[in-house]
Amino acid sequence: MMHSVKSLEAELQRVGNRPGFDSAPPVLCEFTVDVDGDTGEYVRRLRSVLAVAVRLGGTADFDADDLPADGVPDWFAAISPEPSAAPEQAPEFARRGREAFVRDMESRPWALQDWLFRFDPEDDSRGWEWWDATQPGDSKVRLWVDSWGESFFGCQELRWLAYTAGALHVDGPAVQRTGAWAAEAGGEDVDD
């Protein structure tokens, strides 16, 4: 099992705050995201969804038919293809991201409940844990995840979130030595 209550608690801390450089594993995986609009706002949207999902991973009853979705931001719930969702009423960034995901990944949109169930700590299909986000350029954000050194791992739920939070395109994953993250993270925090 990759995820434990303790690892989910640590991941939730990283969703809210930049982790310390001394706590980083030897390698991380990065996704480079092209963003149209404010990169700080993009990262805030991403983290607002991740915080709910990771918290559910540590507290929800995954034997239930449905997981509680009351804390999920409206825009993320609206972009879902579920019958109760209203993709046409979602903000433009989310609609554009949904279209880009379907095009680039040649995949269907994720149903909200399917997406949330990927955070079940007993399910090993989510092969990553959130690490950080950095800003390497004006319209670029780099998402850093711990994939336990693996270069190929389950991450479609992360791509779905990255696109629907406002990405125009997502490249990666690419394994990088932790120093690459540390060099970017030492600069301006994208949450400022």
Please describe what this structure looks like.
This protein is α+β, with helices and mostly antiparallel strands and 192 residues long. The protein has one domain (5-185). 39% of the residues lie in helices and 19% in strands. It contains 7 helices and 4 strands. The protein has helices at 5-16, 39-59, 74-78, 92-105, 112-117, 156-164, 178-185, and strands at 27-35, 129-137, 140-146, 167-177. The protein has a 4-stranded antiparallel sheet with strand order 2-3-1-4. Helix 1 (5-16) packs antiparallel against helix 2 and helix 4 (92-105) runs antiparallel to helix 6. The longest helix has 21 residues, at 39-59. The chain starts with a helix and ends in a 7-residue tail after the last helix. Residues 187-192 have low confidence and may be disordered.
List the helices and strands and how they pair.
Layout: H1 5-16, E1 27-35, H2 39-59, H3 74-78, H4 92-105, H5 112-117, E2 129-137, E3 140-146, H6 156-164, E4 167-177, H7 178-185
Antiparallel strand pairs: 1-3, 1-4, 2-3
Helix pairs in contact: 1-2, 4-6
Radius of gyration: 16 Å
- The N- to C-terminal Cα distance equals 35 Å
SSE ordering: HEHHHHEEHEH
Oligomer: single chain
Number of helical elements: 7
Number of strands: 4
Number of domains: 1
Tell the overall outline: globular
Calculate the mean pLDDT score and round it: 91
